[in-house]
Structures are given as structure tokens and as C-alpha cells.
Write a structure and sequence with these properties.
heterotrimer, A alpha+beta (493), B alpha/beta (478), C mainly alpha (101), A: alpha+beta, Arc Repressor Mutant, subunit A, ten-stranded mixed β-sheet, 15 helices, 40% helix, B: 478 residues, alpha/beta, Amidase signature (AS) enzymes, 14 helices
Chain lengths: 493, 478, 101
């Protein structure tokens, strides 16, 4: 029996526009007092009419373009009719027959995942279930009602749960690059609903198990675990019942993160009937090729492009390039180092600097940011400091490890890193005359060690240590070793 | 002065501006008339208790300073109960006003009350109101038409100076015809729908119901214009009242044969033919037209309107306002369910999509006709006001009653109904339809017709009606 | 078009459920008959060939109507809740949602 999971993902992303999708209420709903960001439109009062938010629509198109989608030049909104207390109008304004963007694809770990569509819609209100005076009650807050949402629907091209996770990370990174949403899964500004079933090949026959759509998954690990659980559950269920997919047996399952299992929420999704029809309150929307181009021009350089640039122009490793490009602001701060008058015109030097700076960014600054849970502050990245530091290391005034140390300090304090090194006495002395003078003193003061050296040249370490101590740690150890060797081999000097 | 309530809008504005009488006297006379006639007519669902107070403080610089206006009860009025004549909303006091209401208030008008209508505007009789039927002032044993029946009745009965209705298909024109007053249905999008309880969203058009064509025109000029809160509102300046015509010379007016169905009341047919003759005398060329059979428009309208209704009424769940869904009456239930059926999976293409396509054919048919003529005339309704009880239990009553207004409404065209005759003491209406945005033409034809006839000057004898005994008494909280 | 316009009681109950309306015993048959009557009437559209006709959703030429992303004042909590039958601590309150099948 050969089992191949078929996984598709629906991702909902809340856009961080100032106002809601169809009315002028503040779209920020996190921690707002209940029902204070509401008006006739988002409360679904009689006679209230929706007017689409231009920025939200443009952002949806922008996201579609970033996902490699085609923009429909003619599109329209539709009503999806269903009853739920948090859905104020009893219909959601969404897109169905003609979404803004369709047919995209993204590459995740070398594999292409097709995107069916990225369309515009609105969020619902929030329900809280609780017992009040002994009665099971639902409390409703409509602050979130009408917040702009983009729904990204993938084709079922994913076959592994880890791929699903990587796909989501990629989508998240892309959205953050575009700056249109915080795409925070824990806070609900990005929500993922995997749809899972299995292709089972057995004795030359092929079966497809019933689809399950998994809801309430609130973390990336959750997505991965829920899919894994579902693959296992469907495998067992198939063995027991042999039930195969039809148009009526799609189910909705919830993810219980505590018990690490999915559970049945709604049966027979096939009987749901949303009665979509074109929203008569909103005229159709047309994007001219020129308007689409205009939006395309606003797309920032995406991480793939950056990674490629870092590898080909800066000569970084694939590993470093990916880490640098992970966060757009971090990458931008790194790139700013090359956009300065200090930049070297020599390609080889440039590459050496790029590698040097990447080490500092990933070794010092990123470590510091991770520890402090801060985002990078680009104003604290001064290109001149990095070039000065680079030159100091090149001139052997500073060691690479000192450079790392002072970079963190410089980022924290804003001081010039070389100054910091000087203050801390970490400047290396590479001047051979100066070192020779100290070396001679060390040789004179340590006759026993000199004797040892004559028997065993490996014992020079002790003398180097003495020399370093005498220089206050500032001597370049490589130079010190060379001079000591010269002196010891030639005691007459 | 007495009986100020009988004034037309133009006369009332002039009287207030020239201080012949005060706004308070005007409002007071209207209230007296309302008090006298409401037990019989039931034109209102709710009266504005503050109307008299508001009339004490008016700004003379405003165009409608101190004018008492009756507004259909599907327009939201802040702090004044708005029910759409449904029990479901019997306690609903909106926190906001409709665009039209704002415009009227900005112009200085005083909302005297909210007029009765078919519940949710579902009907052509005002008989399906949850607050009891309204009666036709010309004969209280008859219906005023609908759904803006209350507004039309207030005009015939002089309970207000001017009124506001709304039309999806016929709801302004048909009750105006049955009550012998003027109803002007603007081009779809000419007047904002914002704050009007939605019925058939792709057709709903608010408009005036008035005593004269001039009055209706003045109101349209004040409530039209672009509203950024209604995405279907046309980006046009407020409509301007056109220069009056002295002759119809050079105008071609079409008379569609299909607008005289077999079941038409003979007197209605004769009145329209007489009216056509009159327009000819005034210089117009009358051209007989072969138009698409209105039966298709009825079917298209039925599907689209029911579908939109089924979705529009979804929001009434009793959680945020109003009562729960068990408070819907039979007609609303029927419409919601048919619309749900038409949109449900497996039927969408056969019903909704098909209707949208035939709607295209209807629009194309009008485009073709308007290459031949400047305007189209016909009876507003094939009958005069029907007796109370006529609509009961008829699933298609409204559609069949509004057969002559549905085609034009599906094309978003403007139309006006003006009085053009009487049969058995009940008024007959002539409708004039023009291309979109050509209200200037329909208003001018109507104005010239009106000034050359005297139907609009005739008033019902309201004293001869004894206290109404039949029909249900209004249950509304007054 | 449809199954000759007749709406069965089973279909009627399904429609009622989708519409969140309750239809009781006596009403059931009456409503089914009335809806069938209407459905039958609208079958008249089958007389027209619409193969090459585009659907009309809206009758005016408006297109691409947007609002700018600007915040306008909202209701106060008190205003928002003022028309509700039942509220609790700033929320609208309703009976617990039961997923009626």
C-alpha cells in the first residue's frame, strides 16, 4: 500500500490598513474595548452600504503579484450567505467567480507550489462562549467585523507536513516583506487551514480518502502536527472503513493543540450552500494594465532576489545569504553598508568585506537581537564603522574575535567600534620593533622556558603567553610567535 | 388662514418665506388633518412628536424651511422609530439617518412622520403592513397601492406638504397613480440608497411623491447627488430642474402596444389614449412601439428581487437590533425562501444567471426603442385602486400589478406617474419613461401635461367617509 | 429549467433551514404550493435564447468605486449596543451558538 498525502492550504491574512474594508472604522481590533470600532456598516444595520477600501484592494493585488499571480482586469465582489452570530450581515463580502488575482506559484525548498488565487474579503466579528447566570451564552464583539482579509488558496501540491510549514514561513516572510500585515499566527493576523486527504495505491487500484479541512491551528508547529495527525488518522480510517472521497463527505475538523489531535467539528460540508451571487452594492472593479504595472513597481526586492544577489555579487554562502535575507529590515541594514562612499571599488575586497560584515551581522547583531527580542534599528548601523573596523582587521590592528565583540558594543552604545577596542585595550600591536623589544625582555626573564624550547619547540606557547601578558594583550599573536622563534633560534640577536 | 395642509410645496414655501403664515401653523394644520384622518387612512406608522417644536425654530435661508414632509418608514431616521412596517423592527430606533433624510433636514424640512408601507416594501398594496393596511383617500374601501402607499395617501389626503417614497419596481409610481398624485422614480443611482432598508439592491431608488410635478422636481433637486457612502451612487451633481417647455414640438413619444394587456381596465386604457392625444395636441409625435413582452420582465424581476431580498434580510437575526426571525410575516418568508431557492446550488444558473442575462436583453430592448423615440408612455397600472383584500394570499400579486413598471426598473430608467383621469371615482396614472438620467424630459412632459389638464387639482372628498369599520385597525404605537 | 417548477416538501425544509426560518405543519404545504406557483411562472424565461448574452449585475456604469483608507468616527459602545435586546459587559449577548444541522 502506497500512501501519498495531498495537502492544500488556505491562508487568511489580516491587512494592516488604518480603516476597515468597507467602512471607516479603525481596523485595529487587538485589545480595543468591545464594540467601540463599529458603525452601521460593520454592524450590519438596516440600510448600511459597503464601500471598498482602495488601499486594501491594492495591497491584495500587490500580494497576488508577489505570489506570481495574474491580476484579473475585471473582477467583482460577491456575497457568501450563511448564518453565524459573529457574521453581522449574515453574508460575507468576498470574491468567488472573479477574484483580484489568480494562478500564481511559489517555490518552497526547490519545489513549486501552485497558488490558485489570492482574493479580497472581510473578517467576521469575534465570539466568546461563556456561561452567564447558568445559561450557555455567546458574547459578540464586532471590532474585527469588516477588517480586510486576503485569502490565499494553494493548489493541493504539498505532500509533506514539513513542506506545509515551509510554505507558510515563505508566505509569512513574503507578506512581511510587502509590509501589508504583521502575519502573526499566534495573534491571529495570519490563519492557516490545511485541507488534507490521501492518495492510496493498493493492488493496482487508487483510492482517495475523504477531505478534511482543519481549523483553529494557531502555530506553525501546530500546522505540522495537525497534518501529521490527520495523515495517520485517515490512514487508519481508510483501513477500517474503506470510505473514499465524494462531493458530500468533506468534513471540518478542529485542532486541539493540548491533546495533539483533530476532532470532528462539522460533518458533510458538501451540504453547505453559500448561495454566492454578485454583490449588488459594489460596482465591478477594473484594473487597467497600467494600474497593475504601477502596483508591480511598488513591489520591493523579495528575499529570493536578495539571496541571489548576496551569492553572486557579494560571494556569500547560500546559508549566510538566506539568514541575512530572512528579515527585510535586517537585510536592508546589511545592504546599506554597500551604499556608501567608503565602499571599495575592488571586487575582491568588496567580497571579503561582504563576508566580514555578514559574519558580524549574523554573529554579533543577530545574536544580540535574538537575546533582547528586539527588531533591528537601522539607525544604529553606521556604514563607516563597519568599513573602519574592516580596515583595522585587514591591518591586523584588531582580531576578528575582537571585531565581533566590539560590534555588539557599538550597536548598543553607538560608539565607534575601533574606539571601543582602543578603550578596552584590544588594539593589536603588529609593529615588529615594539614586539621585539618585549620579546627580548621575555627571553631574558624566562631562561628555563628558553631551555625547554631548545628541547621541545612546541613549548613556545608559554613564552608567547608571557609576551602577550607583557604587552597587555595587544600584541598580534602571529607576529609575536614569529619574532620569538627568530630570537630563540638565533640567541645572538 | 386655515387648511394650510392643502397647499402644494411651492405654495407652502412661498407662504413661509413671505410670512403669510408660520411654519408652526403649517405643521399644526397638517397634524390636525392627520388626527382627523388617521383613524380612517392609517397612512402613518409613527409620528414625530417633536415636529411642532422643530417648527418653532426655522432657518428661512433654507429651501425647505419649516416644510412638513412625510417619509416612508424604510428610511432610517435617527432617534425616530423606523420599522419598514415590520413587527420585527417595532422597537428599532436608528442611531443614524438615511442620506435622503439628512439632505431633507439640511434643507430645513421637518419630518412629520414615518409613513406606512408594505412590510419590508414587499408588495403593491400597503396591505401587508404589520401595522394594518393603509386606505385610499379616494375610497377607504380601496387600497392605496404600494409599497409607498402611506406616502401617496398622505399627499391625496393633504396630511403633509410633500412626501418621500422608494421604488424597487413600481413602489413610487403605482401608489401615486392609485392615489391621484405625482410620483417620480429617479434613475438608479441618482439618489443615494444609504440608510434605506434594502429590498432589491440593484433596483432600489428613493424618490419624491408629491401633489404636483413641480413639487416632485424640487424635492428631487434637493435629494439627488453623489453620496460617497453608496458605491452605486452616480458621480453626478444634484439634478437641476430644467427650464419648462411650452410645447412638445419635435419630441417623439412611444406608446408600446404591450403596455395595454388584455386584462387592462377599459377606462384606464381610454385615459391613456386620451393622454396621448393631449400630448399630440401639445406638439409631440406619438409612435406606436413593439416592445418586449413585459411577462419576461416580471419573471426576471421576481428572481432578482427575491434573491437580493433573501440575502438582504439575512441580517435581521435579533441579536444587534430588532426581534428574531420568527417575526417575519408570510410575504417576507415567501420572498426569502424563493430567493434562497433561486440562489441555491444547482439552481443558480437556471434562475439567477438566466435572469441576469434576460435583464441584458431588456436593457437592449429599451436602447433600441430609445433610438426611435425620446420617451415612452403607458398606464402606470393596468387597474385603478383595487379593493382591500385583493392582495391576500396571491404570491405574485405585486409583480402582476406592477407589470408596466418592471421593465423600466430593471433597466434603471427614471419614470414619473401623473394623474390622467378617473374611473368610478378612482384616479388613473400616466407614466412617462425616459432613458437614464433624462428626468429632465419626463418632468417636462409631465409638467406640460399637468398644466394643460386639471386631474391633479381634483381632491377626494374626505368628509364623506364615515369612520372606517372594515379592515384591521392599526396596532402601531403612535 | 427546474424539475417542472414543483418544490417538494423536502426541498422546502432545506430552503427554510438555509434561510433560518421556521415553517410549521400547516404552512408547509401552502408555502410549497405558493413557491411552486412562482417557480412555475418564472420558467417563462426558457422561451428566450440567452446563449450569447452577458449577464447584467448592475445597471449603471459605475466601476472601481473605492474609498480612501481613512478612519472615521465610530459609534460609542453605548450607541452600538443601544438597540440590542441583550447585552453583557460591552458585548452583544445571544444564546450559545448551536450548530443546528
Amino acid at each position: 500500500m502506497k500512501i501519498t498525502p495531498i495537502i492544500g492550504l488556505e491562508v487568511h491574512v489580516e491587512l494592516k490598513t488604518d480603516s476597515k474594508m468597507f467602512c471607516g472604522c479603525n481596523a485595529e481590533h487587538f485589545h480595543a474595548k468591545p464594540n467601540t470600532h463599529t458603525c452601521p456598516v460593520c454592524l450590519g444595520m438596516p440600510g448600511a452600504l459597503p464601500v471598498p477600501n482602495k488601499k486594501a484592494c491594492q495591497w491584495c493585488v500587490k500580494l497576488g503579484l508577489a505570489l506570481g499571480c495574474t491580476v484579473n482586469e475585471y473582477s467583482f465582489f460577491e456575497r457568501k450567505n450563511y448564518f453565524y452570530p459573529d457574521l453581522s450581515k449574515s453574508y460575507q463580502i468576498t470574491q468567488y467567480q472573479k477574484p483580484f488575482t489568480v494562478n500564481g506559484k511559489i517555490t518552497v525548498q526547490g519545489q513549486e507550489i501552485r497558488i490558485n488565487r489570492a482574493h479580497m474579503e472581510e473578517d467576521t466579528g469575534k465570539s466568546v462562549h461563556m456561561v452567564i447566570n447558568g445559561e450557555e451564552s455567546t458574547l459578540l464583539d464586532f471590532n474585527r467585523s469588516g477588517v480586510p482579509l486576503v485569502e490565499i488558496v494553494s493548489e493541493p501540491d504539498i505532500v509533506l507536513s514539513i513542506q506545509a510549514k515551509e510554505y507558510l514561513l515563505k508566505i509569512q516572510q513574503l507578506i512581511r516583506y510587502l509590509g501589508i500585515s504583521n502575519a502573526d499566527i499566534e495573534k491571529g493576523s495570519m490563519r492557516c487551514e490545511p485541507t488534507v486527504n490521501l492518495k492510496i495505491e493498493d493492488n493496482g487500484k487508487t483510492f482517495y480518502t475523504p477531505l478534511s479541512e482543519i481549523k483553529n491551528v494557531a502555530s506553525l508547529t501546530g500546522v505540522q502536527n495537525a497534518i501529521d495527525f490527520e495523515i495517520e488518522r485517515q490512514t487508519q480510517a481508510f483501513k477500517e472503513t474503506k470510505e473514499v472521497k465524494n462531493s458530500k463527505n468533506k468534513t471540518t475538523r478542529g485542532w486541539d493543540a493540548d491533546k495533539a489531535r483533530t476532532f470532528l467539528q462539522r460533518e458533510k460540508e458538501g451540504s453547505a450552500d453559500y448561495r454566492y451571487f454578485p454583490e449588488p452594492d459594489i460596482p465591478p472593479i477594473e484594473f487597467t494594465p497600467a494600474e497593475i504595472e504601477e502596483i508591480r513597481m511598488t513591489l520591493p526586492e523579495m528575499s529570493e532576489q536578495k539571496i541571489e544577489k548576496y551569492q553572486t555579487i557579494y560571494g556569500l554562502s547560500d546559508y549566510d545569504a538566506k539568514l541575512l535575507a530572512e528579515d527585510q529590515n535586517f537585510a536592508a541594514a546589511y545592504e546599506a553598508l554597500f551604499d556608501t562612499e567608503f565602499v571599495s571599488k575592488d571586487q575582491d575586497t568588496l567580497k571579503v568585506f561582504a563576508k566580514f560584515a555578514a559574519n558580524l551581522f549574523l554573529g554579533s547583531i543577530k545574536t544580540y537581537l535574538n537575546e533582547t527580542q528586539e527588531n533591528i534599528d537601522s539607525s544604529k548601523i553606521v556604514a563607516k564603522y563597519f568599513w573602519d573596523l574592516f580596515n583595522s582587521v585587514q591591518n591586523k590592528e584588531l582580531s576578528s574575535s575582537v571585531a565581533k565583540q566590539v560590534t555588539t558594543e557599538s550597536y548598543k552604545t553607538g560608539k565607534h567600534p575601533v574606539e571601543i577596542a582602543k578603550e578596552m585595550g584590544l588594539i593589536q600591536v603588529s609593529d615588529s620593533n615594539q614586539i621585539e623589544k618585549i620579546a627580548k625582555e621575555v627571553v631574558v626573564a624566562n631562561p628555563k622556558a628558553v631551555q625547554d624550547y631548545q628541547k621541545n619547540p612546541m613549548s613556545i606557547g608559554f613564552l608567547i603567553g608571557q609576551l602577550m601578558r607583557a604587552s597587555g594583550g595587544s600584541a598580534n599573536p602571529q607576529v609575536a610567535k614569529e619574532i620569538l622563534e627568530k630570537l630563540l633560534k638565533n640567541p645572538t640577536l | 388662514m386655515s387648511d394650510l395642509n392643502k397647499l402644494t410645496l411651492t405654495q407652502a414655501i412661498d407662504g413661509i418665506k413671505t410670512k403669510k403664515f408660520s411654519a408652526k401653523e403649517l405643521v399644526s394644520d397638517c397634524l390636525t388633518q392627520i388626527q382627523k384622518l388617521e383613524p380612517t387612512l392609517n397612512s402613518f406608522v409613527t409620528l414625530n412628536e417633536n415636529a411642532l417644536n422643530e417648527s418653532e425654530n426655522i432657518n428661512f435661508s433654507k429651501p425647505l424651511a419649516g416644510i412638513p414632509i412625510a417619509v416612508k418608514d424604510n428610511f432610517c431616521t435617527q432617534d425616530l422609530r423606523t420599522t419598514a412596517s415590520s413587527k420585527l423592527l417595532e422597537n428599532f430606533i436608528p442611531q443614524y439617518s438615511a442620506y435622503v433624510v439628512e439632505k431633507l433636514k439640511d434643507a430645513g424640512a421637518i419630518i412629520i412622520g414615518k409613513t406606512n408601507m408594505d412590510s419590508w416594501a414587499h408588495g403593491s398594496s400597503t396591505e401587508t403592513s404589520d401595522f394594518g393596511p393603509s386606505k385610499n383617500p379616494w375610497n377607504p374601501k380601496h387600497l392605496p397601492g404600494g409599497s409607498s402607499g402611506g406616502s401617496a395617501a398622505t399627499m391625496a389626503a393633504d396630511e403633509a406638504i410633500v412626501s418621500i417614497g422608494s421604488e424597487t419596481a413600481g413602489s413610487i409610481r403605482q401608489p401615486s397613480a392609485w392615489c391621484g398624485v405625482v410620483g417620480l422614480k429617479p434613475t438608479y443611482g441618482r439618489v443615494s440608497r444609504c440608510g434605506v432598508v434594502a429590498m432589491g439592491s440593484s433596483m432600489d431608488s428613493p424618490g419624491p411623491i408629491a401633489k404636483t410635478v413641480d413639487d416632485a422636481a424640487l424635492i428631487l433637486s434637493l435629494i439627488s447627488g453623489h453620496d460617497p457612502a453608496d458605491a452605486t451612487s452616480l458621480n453626478k451633481k444634484p439634478w437641476q430642474i430644467p427650464e419648462a417647455l411650452t410645447s412638445l414640438k419635435g419630441l417623439k413619444i412611444g406608446l408600446p402596444k404591450a403596455y395595454f394587456p388584455k386584462k387592462i381596465k377599459p377606462e384606464v386604457k381610454q385615459s391613456i389614449l386620451n393622454a396621448a392625444e393631449k400630448l399630440k395636441e401639445l406638439g409631440a409625435e406619438i409612435i406606436e412601439l413593439d416592445v418586449m413582452d413585459p411577462k419576461y420582465a416580471i419573471a426576471v424581476y421576481t428572481i432578482l428581487q427575491r434573491s437580493e431580498v433573501s440575502s438582504n434580510l439575512g441580517r435581521y437575526t435579533g441579536i444587534r437590533y430588532g426581534h428574531d426571525r420568527t417575526f417575519f410575516g408570510d410575504e417576507a418568508k415567501r420572498r426569502i425562501m424563493l430567493g434562497t431557492y433561486a440562489l441555491s446550488s444547482g439552481y443558480y444558473d437556471a434562475y439567477y444567471l438566466k435572469a441576469q442575462k434576460v435583464r441584458t436583453l431588456i436593457i437592449q430592448d429599451f436602447e433600441k426603442q430609445f433610438q426611435k423615440v425620446d420617451a415612452i408612455i403607458g398606464p402606470t397600472s393596468p387597474t385603478t385602486a383595487l379593493p382591500i383584500g385583493a392582495s391576500a394570499g396571491q404570491a405574485m400579486f405585486g409583480e402582476l400589478e406592477d407589470i408596466l413598471v418592471e421593465p423600466s426598473t430593471l433597466a434603471g430608467l427614471p419614470g414619473i406617474s401623473v394623474p390622467c383621469g378617473f374611473a368610478d371615482g378612482l384616479p388613473i396614472g400616466l407614466q412617462i419613461i425616459t432613458p437614464q438620467l433624462r428626468e429632465d424630459l419626463s418632468v417636462n412632459i409631465a409638467r406640460l401635461f399637468e398644466s394643460n389638464t386639471d386631474y391633479h387639482l381634483q381632491k377626494p372628498n374626505l368628509n364623506c367617509h364615515p369612520e372606517q369599520s372594515e379592515g384591521s385597525r392599526p396596532e402601531a404605537v403612535k | 429549467m427546474s424539475n417542472n417548477g414543483k418544490i417538494t416538501l423536502e426541498e422546502l425544509q432545506h430552503i427554510a433551514q438555509l434561510s433560518r426560518l421556521e415553517v410549521n405543519g400547516e404552512e408547509e404545504q401552502k408555502l410549497a404550493d405558493q413557491l411552486s406557483q412562482t417557480a412555475e411562472y418564472i420558467d417563462v424565461l426558457n422561451e428566450l435564447n440567452t446563449d450569447d448574452v452577458l449577464p447584467t449585475a448592475q445597471v449603471n456604469q459605475n466601476k472601481s468605486i473605492f474609498r480612501e483608507d481613512v478612519i472615521n468616527p465610530s459609534f460609542t459602545q453605548k450607541e452600538a449596543l443601544s438597540q440590542a435586546i441583550d447585552t453583557y459587559d460591552g458585548y452583544f449577548k445571544t444564546k450559545a451558538t448551536i450548530n443546528k444541522k
